[in-house]
Amino acid sequence: MAQFAGTKGDIYTKEIIKRILDEGCLDKWPSSKYADGAPAHTISVNHGIATYDLTKGEFPLITLRPIAVKFAIGELLWIYQDQSNNLDLLKEKYGVTWWDEWDIGDRTIGAVYGETIRRHNLVGELIDGITKNPDGRRHIINMWQVDDYKDKHGLKPCAYQTIWNVRRGKDGIDYLDMALFQRSSDFLSAGCINQMQYLVFLHLIARHCGYTPGRFTWFYNNIQIYNRHINLAKELVARDPVECHPSIWLNPRKNNFYDFTIDDIKILGYPKKEIAKKNPQMSFDLGHENIDTEGFDLRDFLDKEK
Q: Fewest beta carbons less than 10 Å away: which of 45, 188, 265, 278?
């Protein structure tokens, strides 16, 4: 790693993209379409892991393109701190609007994400468990609550589960480690963002419970690239990273998870302007799920693509 100028996130990003391009399989019946109505096919691979030792400065943030982390952190707080499914709150408090297409008609996304966290007191149970039984192995947040899906809802959670463990380090320091499990990842547009969100979540819970953030690991089940992103993926692999050493800063005057605001959380050591100059931002033509594809024949589409 010493010979690589960028972050460990840059290394993983190139490895994952190369794997998808080399091994990826084309889906046959996509459930989403592009804005112009064409089916949004993906190529994907199954099962993988990315792990970061935070005590060694390893970090998932990438420099192959600039990443807007602040909006991602706002979404995280909306889900786990506000425990909300209200789209107006998300927009007014954090400036995030990318969930609007999953509005079920009442300016919410229904019985998922923050609503599931609230219904089952998942954050409260997590903090209580780590506090009262730190060496336990049952510190889990799982948003895949099937009974909740009986109610009207938008998109089911992609990053759906975290498992937390206190580790008594041989160096005398007590660490909090966390693993994130993600069922599906649109890698180019959101892979880095999801990892950064949950890295921040680890820091916040570690601060609340009095531990040092230790190891963050991301397990992905299916990871994909849209067919219209293939050339962008190749360009990312060809780019050279920017040398930097990002870190997370939390307001030292706050310890309670529920007291942190978006302004109490900052990413330091990430030269976004330099990154944007060397590795400009990309525009991703995304597919939209929950669009009716009845009557669509893949063979017709493939004929047109030829």
A: 278
Q: Is 255 exposed, middle or buried (0-12, 13-18, 19+ CB in 10 A)?
A: middle
25 is catalytic: no
- Choice among 158, 192, 209, 244 that is catalytic: 158
> pLDDT by residue (tens digit) across 207-245?
999 999 999 999 999 999 999 999 999 999 999 999 999
Spell out, as residue ranges, where the chain has pLDDT lower than 70. 1-4, 288-306
Return d(Cα 16, Cα 285) in angstroms, integer. Answer: 20
- Assigned token pair, 118: 């609230």
Buried/exposed 155-186: b ≥16 CB within 10 Å, e otherwise:
ebbbbbbbbbbbbeeeeeebbbbbbbbbebbb
The predicted pLDDT at position 1 comes to: 41
Q: Are 199 and 12 a contacting pair, CB within 8 Å?
A: no
Taking CA atoms, 213 is separated from 111, 156, 166, in Å, by 31, 29, 10
